[in-house]
Amino acid sequence: MTHRQAVWTMVAAAMLWSIAGVVTRQVEQAQAFELTFWRSGFNAIALVVLLSVLRGPVRLAAQLRGADARLWLSGLCWTVMFTAFMVALTLTSVAGVLVTMALAPLLTALVARAALGHRLPRRTWMAIGLAGAGIAWMYGSQLGSGDARQWLGTAVALAVPLAAAVNWTLLQHLRNVQGPAGDLMPAVLIGALLSALLTLPLAWPLTATAADVGWLALLGVAQLAVPCLMAVAAARVLSAPEIALLGLLEVVFGVSWAWLGAGEAPRPAELGGGGLVLGALVTHELIAMRTPPPGARNR
Q1: Phi, psi (degrees; rounded to nearest 5) at 278
Q2: Residue 53, by phi and psi: left (phi above 0), alpha (psi -120 to 50) or beta?
Q3: What does the alpha-carbon distance between residue 110 and residue 108 come to, in Å, rounded to a whole number?
Q4: What is the DSSP string of 33-75?
Q5: Long-range Cβ pairs for the range 112-120 (8 Å, 24+)
Q6: Which pTM value belongs to this model?
Q7: Is 213 exposed, middle or buried (0-12, 13-18, 19+ CB in 10 A)?
Q8: Spatial separation of the C-alpha atoms in residues 120 and 113, rounded to whole Å
Q9: DSSP structure class, residue 182
């Protein structure tokens, strides 16, 4: 995969991730932990099928049996991301959750620098700064309501970018490792299984209607299984901050879908902040595509 292909893969993944809010608003009966159980359960089923096709069932089973600490750490990160996101959506607005998740690039850059000693290009720092300004603009508007439920939703949502920062940094660390040791796609399946198992007792008794189950199956397959595997594949080419920055497109797309499909109109601050985030992404990637790789000038 070339850098440009990896960029477009992450854009497509962000587009698929972004439908979660608007689809969740169509659910009638299922609540917080039941939403998570059904979505994670369908995600796990889809991943078993997809990874069996990509890896072969025998190899997939061997990878899961021989999972080392790195695979389990990535799996736990996915568990937190899958679970906290859906619970947060039931406590606060789609925009509030997505704005909180948009802290991921800032946290990822800091974790990657601390854990891997990465020296980030100036363009990445500038893009993170501009995106951070947009996030602060949107985030401030969410905190002004004083609603305890929204504060709790924000606190739960904060677990998502924290787990994402660790996960993207781990993927970055292993992207040049060949063979099973560098293959973290099965970690997404581990995360889905753990999320479903942990939330089932809290979701019981199940109250979802047939329509609810259909919507949540859509989320499990199209909004989780497929884009998560796409993101893991792109992470073999892109740097951790680039992945996190491109993942911010989920904020712009997600707020738009919630506005158009569920009537959750964003505030002016959310529109202005989203514009800054999108501008930072476009500028960063255009510069990256025009900048030759290290050492190219010497050839």
Answers
A1: -65, -40
A2: alpha
A3: 5
A4: HHHHHHHHHHHHHHHHHHHHHHH-HHHHHHHHHT--HHHHHHH
A5: 112/168, 112/169, 112/172, 112/239, 112/240, 112/241, 115/169, 115/173, 116/169, 116/172, 116/173, 118/172, 118/239, 118/240, 120/241
A6: 0.77
A7: middle
A8: 8
A9: G
SS3 28: coil
Tell me which amino acid residue 178 is. Answer: Q
> Of 187, 132, 168, whose CA–CA distance to 240 is shortest?
168
- Which of 252, 213, 151, 152 shows the shortest CA–CA distance to 23? 213
Query: What distance lies between CA 157 and its chain's CA centroid?
Result: 12
Q: What is the dihedral of CA 166, 170, 171, 173, to 10 degrees?
A: 140
CB 248: neighbour CB atoms within 10 A? Answer: 25
Q: Find where tokens 């989920």 sit.
A: 250
Residue 292 carries which DSSP code?
P
Question: How far, in Å, CA of 255 to CA of 12, rounded?
Answer: 16
Q: Is the dihedral of CA 150, 153, 155, 158 positive or negative?
A: negative
Per-residue pLDDT of the chain (299 residues; tens, 9 = 90+): 788 899 899 999 999 988 988 888 888 877 878 888 998 999 999 988 888 887 788 888 877 787 778 888 888 999 999 899 888 888 877 877 887 777 777 777 778 777 777 677 787 778 778 877 877 776 666 566 566 676 777 788 889 988 988 888 887 776 665 555 556 778 888 899 999 999 999 888 888 889 988 999 999 899 888 888 888 788 778 876 677 778 778 888 888 888 887 777 777 776 787 778 778 777 876 776 666 655 544 43
In whole angstroms, what is the distance from residue 278 CA to residue 249 CA? 7
Asked if 244 and 172 touch (Cβ cutoff 8 Å), the reply is: no
Placement of tokens 């199209």 in the chain: 222
- Cα separation, 24 vs 236, whole angstroms: 31
Burial environment of residue 73 by CB neighbours within 10 A (0 to 12, 13 to 18, 19 or more): middle
Q: What is the mean pLDDT of the chain?
A: 80
